[in-house]
Amino acid sequence: MFQIEEELKKLPGKPGVYIMRDEADTILYVGKAINLHNRVRSYFREKIGRGPAIDKMVSLIHHFEYIVTDSELEALVLENNLIKEYSPKYNTLLKDDKTYPYIKVTMGEEFPRILFSRVMKKDKSRYFGPFTAQAAVHETIDLLNKLFGLRTCTRNLPKDIGKDRPCLNYHIKQCSAPCQGYISKEEYNQRINQAVDFLSGNYGLILKDLEQKMKAASEKMEFEEAAKYRDLYNDVKQIAQRQKITDKVGEDKDIVALYAQEDSAVVQVFFVRDGKLIGREHYYMKNVEEKENPDILQDFVKQFYAGTPFIPREIMLQYEIGDRELLEQWLSERRGSKTKLLVPKIGTKEKLVELAAQNAKLTLTQNKERLKREEGRTIGALHQVEEWLGLKEIRRMEAFDISNTNGFENVGSMVVFENGKAKRSDYRKFRIKTVAGPDDYACMREVLTRRFLHGMQEGKELAQKNLENELGSFSKLPDLIMMDGGKGQVGIALSVLEELKLNIPVCGMVKDTHHRTRGLYFQNVEIPIDTHSDGFDLITRIQDEAHRFAIEYHKSLRGKAQVKSILEEIPGVGPATRRVLMKHFDSLEGIKEATIEELAALEGINRRQAQEIVAFFSK
Known about the structure:
Layout: H1 4-9, E1 16-21, E2 27-33, H2 36-42, H3 52-60, E3 63-68, H4 72-86, E4 93-94, E5 102-105, E6 114-117, E7 126-128, H5 134-148, H6 168-171, H7 185-199, H8 204-219, H9 223-242, E8 244-245, E9 253-261, E10 264-273, E11 276-286, H10 293-307, E12 314-317, H11 324-335, E13 340-342, H12 347-389, E14 396-405, E15 408-418, E16 421-422, E17 428-431, H13 440-464, E18 480-483, H14 487-499, E19 506-511, E20 517-522, E21 525-528, H15 534-567, H16 575-584, H17 588-593, H18 596-600, H19 607-618
Parallel strand pairs: 9-12, 12-13, 14-18, 18-19
Antiparallel strand pairs: 1-2, 1-3, 4-11, 5-6, 5-7, 8-11, 9-10, 10-11, 14-15, 15-16, 15-17, 19-20, 20-21
Helix pairs in contact: 4-11, 8-9, 12-15, 13-14
């Protein structure tokens, strides 16, 4: 029996993290302390000015645990990891889980490439960003490749120079073909350096060069060439005009401010890179009741910069925060060089912070009603499902479905909803391996067995590497399994879980004779549900999504099978050539419309085969 008074006496006067739990062992709150003994004991003193929310949390504490660390900095990192993993009810939480695109220049390669990336690794590459518009990043990369004739292939150069014919990009004059040795390493790297200058904001020389080439081509009456340079000139100018100079050239900084009202808060961040405002983004914070603005801002800084790969040299804040020096130390270690947290009081910087605060206020006031509706559709709907089933703390739901056509190409789908929203990055497809013919129960047994065996194995591997906090999409088990059907499908799921010694609630989504959801089958009872409620809409979305995902996968396999069967009829086209065609073209129509030159330019297809393919579809 856990005796709180006795356990309080045992607390060490050392830095660490404390975890408050309720009677059901659910984590209520995670905090860090420079002195665990003093900090944890403070929760159980007289209720003096703590506010109703903290009093309520303390009243629910059944037991607590703690982890001692060597320093307050280690405690900060551990606190962040635990909050991210468990999303405790009484912690202020960053709701958004966004990752931003970067432009990556692979300077570690002898013939570098320019790539789209969502992660920023400690390698020899140069990274530009983060950017807030994915389409603009792709547009910029395409422009640079076209402008400088850079390679986009994954060939190992210079090792593979001359081994294969040049690709289609060379033939359409969008690549200088370093794979063939048509451009020297020195000249290619000059082009890369020009591209890096462009990404650093130096557009003047490129615009001047394009203008000269356009005029020269026009004077020679090469109007098609002149039009090409004109279009490139306009593209460069358009991208250049998007950049707004905000301060000294070369500065990287974020400007962070918030607006809070009642139980809602929005934090606005302006991203400045190389002295230019490249974008802005807003973030919603929850569980902010009774929190002071500086405390909300401090929680945001800890959670946001724990997850973003780029740390700027300066972070300008709206308020002074309590852990400023500790956070500067942590951010500097993550960045690898000094990072400062500043609260500007006068001048341009103060006005930028004020502008960010105004944007945060505008976002919150405009979106408050929408947020309430969204909350009803997601968290509110989740609470209704919990109430119907008599369950608590449902965060992750997984639903499964089977699709086939008379037993042809049996496939299974797994869709995931977290906090009432679809989490598409965790969706999974299963091609049935052990079942021949239309047997949905056997197919479902295989899908569920593979899903949970994989999850258990992944969990063991992470534990062996001491990475338990870095759960993968399979090792993260659901709080509730939703089966598309009634007693039969639920029975299959329960039997699989029993064999694997897993204890996860299973619920069936029961349909009526008109194929509409009418209730939930749970613990051998069909539970009627309000068909005009947010909870009903959530169940319908999950059911429809599982069905859609399975059907789409099945259609794609059927389409590939049909394309493959037609390609098998072409003389001289073997399995390797079929794979090349199916990988490169999205559809059979694309193959039919391809020219001999386009086909022969593909790696692995010679001109004779290209002629056979074109002749076959010309009949």
